[in-house]
Amino acid sequence: MFVPLKGAWALIFGVSSGMGKETARALAGAGCNIVGVHFDLSEGQEQAEQFAKELGQLGTEVHFFNRNISAKQTRAELIPIIGDLSSGIGPRVILHSVAYGALTSLLPSAERQEQGVTEKQLAMTVDVMGHSLVYWTQDLLKAALLPRGAKVFAMTSVGGTRVLPHYAPVSAAKAVLESHVRQLAVELAPHGVAVNAIRAGTTITPALLKIPGSEKVIAHCRDINPGGRLTLAEDVAEAIITLSSTDSSWLTGNVIGVDGGEALVV
Amino acid sequence: MSSNHTSGVDIEEMRALIAEELELPVEEVTDDADLANDLEVDSLSAMEIAVLLEKKYRIKISEEEIKSLTSLLIIHKLVSAKVDAA
Fold first, then answer.
1. Do A16 and A203 form a contact (C-beta atoms < 8 A)?
2. Is residue A131 assigned to a domain?
3. How many structural domains is chain A composed of?
4. Are A121 and A40 in contact (CB under 8 A)?
5. Facing residues of A13 across strands?
6. Which residues numbered 7-66 in B keep a CB inside 8 Å of some CB on A?
């Protein structure tokens, strides 16, 4: 059954940029209240505050927090707040759209001027971009803030199964994230909660532009995408709104391509 | 150490702040301990320190500057200069 998003709550990790930002805008447009978490220096924080104000003008409740989502104390602080704000119900939509990781190869390469990943870099990247989904889900469930009909989305990319330059730690994190999505989907099925990964096509976001050589990936994907253009963050936002507008939990455990068919022709 | 008396940014207070953030005993955060190599600070912890310093001292730190936050003494110098300039 289709259900309106108006008055429901969404919890968005990575709300200040890219897919998280556009999905927040679309959800707020649909009347959904937003708890957004982002991690930015003051310049980014000012922009995020401005964005939160914009969303608030759409007539929904918007609360942004500048915190490291992978820190235990962030969960300890924010989960009770999410409970209070949503009157003990919890979020209907959870989006994990976190881009914070080491951009390097696994091995040193003089040719590509890379030092190779360190143990700390690899552990941090997989923790922030992968495992953090599990810890938040655990704590939300423990606090009885994962209601029946809730939808959990995690942003993955084609780099989770393919090899891209400078992407090795993030690729590992995406593979981990997709694995967690499958596992959580099965474990949350009895709770009526759906968990899916969204594999967006190449989308020009601040996170993509940070990857050295991303201009080549952008040019290549623009060339081959059967839809004739790159993916926009708005495409992802619309997909998430569509998939969130049902109380069914039967569509679960998938990696859903939102890419105009790009991955089929790479 | 002109930065000490010009800006009034207390290096001991900063040492305690950073030690708390890193969950380390204060004595391990020596003036010259290298954050990455001696104190195992990764880029995410460095970002946490930067966000904390911005808030505490009401300054702005750029992403580029995070890489230069390599020891307490260097951080103190950078923060003092920013506080003085504010």
1. no
2. yes
3. 1
4. no
5. A37, A96
6. 40, 42-44, 47-48, 50-51, 54, 59-63, 66
* Chain-chain contact of A66 with B51 (C-beta, under 8 angstroms): yes
Q: Write out the residue range of the structural domain in which residue A163 sits.
A: 9-265
* Structural domain includes residue A85: yes
Domain ranges, ordered by start, for chain B: 2-85
Both tokens assigned to A141:
């469930």
Q: How far is B6 from chain A (nearest CA, A)?
A: 24
Q: Distance (Å, rounded) from C-alpha A156 to C-alpha A178?
A: 7
SS3 content of chain A, % helix, strand, coil (to 5): 45, 15, 40
Share in percent of chain B as helix, strand, coil (round to 5): 65, 0, 35
Whether A41 and B60 lie within 8 Å, measured CB to CB: yes
The residue ranges of chain A whose pLDDT is under 70 are none
CATH code where residue A62 lies: 3.40.50.720
What is the reported pTM? 0.94
| B62/A71 touch (CB, cutoff 8 Å), yes or no | no
Decide if A120 is inside a domain.
yes
The shortest C-alpha distance from B33 to chain A (Å) reads 18
Contacts for A100 with CB less than 8 Å, ≥ 6 apart? A39, A125, A128, A129, B44, B47
What are the pLDDT digits (tens) for A45-84?
A: 999 999 999 999 999 999 999 999 999 999 999 999 999 9
Pull the structure tokens for residue A161: 């199964």
Number of neighbouring beta carbons within 10 Å of residue A201 = 23
Handedness of CA A221, A226, A229, A233 (dihedral sign): negative
Give φ, ψ of A197 to 5 degrees.
-100, 140
Superfamily designation of domain B2-85: ACP-like (1.10.1200.10)
3-state SS of A79-132 is HHHHHHHCCCCCCCEEEECCCCCCCCCCCCECCCCECCCCHHHHHHHHHHHHHH
Nearest to A90 by CA among A135, A136, A134, A150: A150
Nearest to A139 by CA among A81, A216, A54: A81
